[in-house]
Amino acid sequence: MKKLVLVLFSTILLTACSNTSSNNTENKSSSSKSSITTSKRSKTATPKPNLNKKYPGFKLATIPDNFQGTWYQTDIYSTQARKFIITKHTIMDSVVYQKTDPNLNLSHRSEKDNKTYAGNATMVSFEDKNGSQWLRARGFLDTVDIIYITGTFKGHRCLYLAYSSGDIHSAIFKDRKAALKYRKYDFSQVTNPSN
């Protein structure tokens, strides 16, 4: 009698475990299907930059042609190059503006400025220095510029990247293969972006 109870109990337990296992498999496949659907939706749901948004003291800027296009960036640890897109009025998906009011001073500590200048927007300025064109970009309330400097590196068209001081720290290339080839290069050694 004890053996019969033990066999029945074991059978019930094994049956319950196998049902749970098959339910988990079904749940996994349905959840992965839903996550695939979700990721497809999120890619198409990316909002387009609003080129009509107005900010006091700024106007919509037009980026010069030699900065525009698809560039490729990478880093020392990457095995793939990432696209970096600059259009007529955007850097990646950030709309660019030029300052029109020279007396306008913005503070990231100001609650009013944080409300007024919130959004995906970048303040830019353009200069010619040492035979290269410079595009200075930063968020309205940021304190450090990223500088894109036109140039060539070993025969490849590139934009050198520098911080506010102008010291070059990396480069993005028009050619994906060049970006990967020079991903470990120390660009701080570059002193003349035109060569």
Automatic annotation (TrEMBL):
Skewed-composition ranges (Low complexity): 19-39
Keyword Signal: yes
Region annotation Disordered: where it falls in the sequence: 19-53
N-terminal signal peptide: 1-21
Source taxon at top rank: Bacteria
Keyword terms: Signal
Name of the protein in question: Lipoprotein
